[in-house]
Amino acid sequence: MGNKFVGLIDFDTCSPGTRLWDISYTVYRFIPLYPNENIEKYIEISPFSIEDMIQRLNLFLNAYDENNNKFQYSLLNVIEKLIERLKALADWSIDFAKKNNKHNLIEHANMYLSHCEWLNKFKTLL
Is the confidence at residue 25, as pLDDT, over 60? Predict the structure, then answer.
């Protein structure tokens, strides 16, 4: 394989899912595809402009599909799946926090939900 990156394994909240489910979270963390301003509100922010995030997202998806129609996903489908994924992660975080007295996870859940709001605005720019 030489110096070519071929994969990444992340076992955090590991569970079965679709390719799109995994791709959506990957772009969320590695583009990174979240708000780029107002850290007080959003807690985690991207260092990139909206235009750069869109360009990085396009580059990622083009590299992922390698011209195979079976693996092509639209920007809008990825964003919509990401919103679904973040809502599920927020729900899981709240449930886990309550059951295990891990109240700091509530902050994470609130961040995911605020990022969902931002993503709903972001997808109108596509």
Answer: yes
Q: Where do we find the tokens 């071929």? A: 6
pLDDT single digits (tens) 63-117: 988 888 888 899 999 999 999 999 999 999 999 999 999 988 999 999 999 999 9
Encoded amino acid at 108, one letter = H
Q: Which of 10, 36, 17 is nearest to 88 (CA)?
A: 17
Q: How far, in whole angstroms, is CA 102 from its chain's centroid?
A: 23
**CA-to-CA distance for 41 and 30, rounded, in angstroms?**
21
Domain-located, residue 2: no
Does residue 1 belong to any structural domain of this protein? no
Whether 24 maps to a domain, the answer reads yes
SS3 content of the chain, % helix, strand, coil (to 5): 65, 0, 35
Instruction: Identify whether 12 is part of a domain.
Output: no
Q: CA-CA-CA-CA torsion for 103, 115, 27, 53, nearest 10 degrees?
A: -140
Which two tokens mark 56?
């990085």
Domain span at 63: 19-125
**How many domains, in total, are found in the chain?**
1
